[in-house]
Amino acid sequence: MNYGNHSRLIEFLIIGFSDFPSLKTPLLLCFLCVYIFTFAGNSILTILISWSPSLSSPMYFFLCNLSSLDVLYTSTTCPHLIGISITQEGQISFVGCMFQLYFFIAFGSTEYFLLTVMSFDRYVAICKPLHYTLMMNKQVCLYGAMGSWLGGLIASIPITTVASTLDYCNSNIVNHFFCDITALITLACSNATIIHTIILIQGVLLVMTSFFLTLVSYINIVWTIMMIQTSKGKYKTFSTCASHLTTVSFFYIIVFVLYMRPSAAVSLRQGKILTALYMYAIPMLNPIVYSFRNKNVKMALKQFIKIGHY
User: Fold this and answer.
1) Residues 141, 62 contacting (CB under 8 angstroms)
2) Cα–Cα distance between 50 and 40 in angstroms, integer?
3) Could you give all domains of the chain from N- to C-terminal order, each with its CATH number?
4) Residues 80, 291, 283: CA angle, nearest 5 degrees
5) Which residue has the higher pLDDT, 132 or 189?
6) How far apart are CA 54 and CA 147, in angstroms?
7) pLDDT digits (tens, 9 = 90+) for 55-112
8) Within 10 A of 237 (CB to CB), how many other CB atoms are there?
9) Average of pLDDT values for 146-170?
10) pLDDT one-digit tens code per residue, 123-151
11) Closest CA to 168 of 56, 93, 112, 111
12) Is the terminal CB of the chain with fewer CB neighbours within 10 Å at N or C?
């Protein structure tokens, strides 16, 4: 095949984890279990929140959005990765690769926005409880959710657009388990300065701004909790944001380990493992975190199961 022009490139070849031949079967079983658990867990959580009247507050509305997002996010790459592991054939069309890249960035960006909005919801609930109903009314919640989804879909356009116009003449072999932009750039023989600049700008504007706003929310939350006189009151108040704080902490720890490390700190193989952890660990853990630490969710699940027996 001639790689002299990206328009002549029909497909990419994603190698997945073929550089871990001894772990072929364990990795296949691992990703299969992760996807099934993520899909089932988040789907059940979405159904519960939509069904139960006791889970109708803004917090659960945003959690429903987060669960739906996690299903879509993992479905963007995991089924194809499982297919590669089974068939050992990683072909993906050029158009298919660009679509995968677009939705990966779009849903990932949406998660930053949504977690930030959820942090603000917890801030209002704890720091301004008397104004919570007014500040977090249905219209505000709807705008917050719609803005998060729309913002993610828009944020993905610049990188995907530029990536689709690059000339891929070095090779068509993507040394990753999906169409990751960093892996695609190494295959391009045209100037990638623009796309590097876009990635840097979006990283600062999206990641750092979301992190800063979330941090500010929780600094105020912690300060408010510290002002509570009784230990019981502190625990009760903290429990209302413990699940979200756990999710946010895991999320940003993995993000900073993955993206803030020196470029030569880990090998490409280790980088793929870290990326997989970032992409699949949080969506899989969210149903566990929000179910085990939330009495209302557990009660709704028991009622749902009880009704199902009749």
Assistant:
1) yes
2) 15
3) 6-308 (1.20.1070.10)
4) 20
5) 132
6) 25
7) 889 999 999 999 999 999 999 999 999 998 888 888 999 999 999 999 999 999 999 9
8) 17
9) 93
10) 999 999 999 999 999 999 999 999 999 99
11) 93
12) C
Dig out the tokens for 69 from the structure.
């997002």
**Helix, strand, coil percent values for the chain (each to nearest 5):** 80, 5, 20
Q: Give the DSSP letter of residue 19.
A: T
Query: Which SS3 state, helix, strand or coil, does residue 91 take?
Result: strand
Residue 3 has pLDDT above 60, yes or no: no
Residue identified by tokens 């072999």 is: 173
Contact by Cβ (8 Å): 244, 210: no
Residue 13, both tokens:
């070849």
What's the CA gap between 173 and 90, in Å, rounded?
A: 9
Please state the rounded mean pLDDT for residues 269-275.
76
Please identify which residue in the block is written with the tokens 């997989």.
276
Nearest to 288 by CA among 12, 44, 81, 72: 44
The partner residues of 12 in beta bridges, in order of sequence, read 92
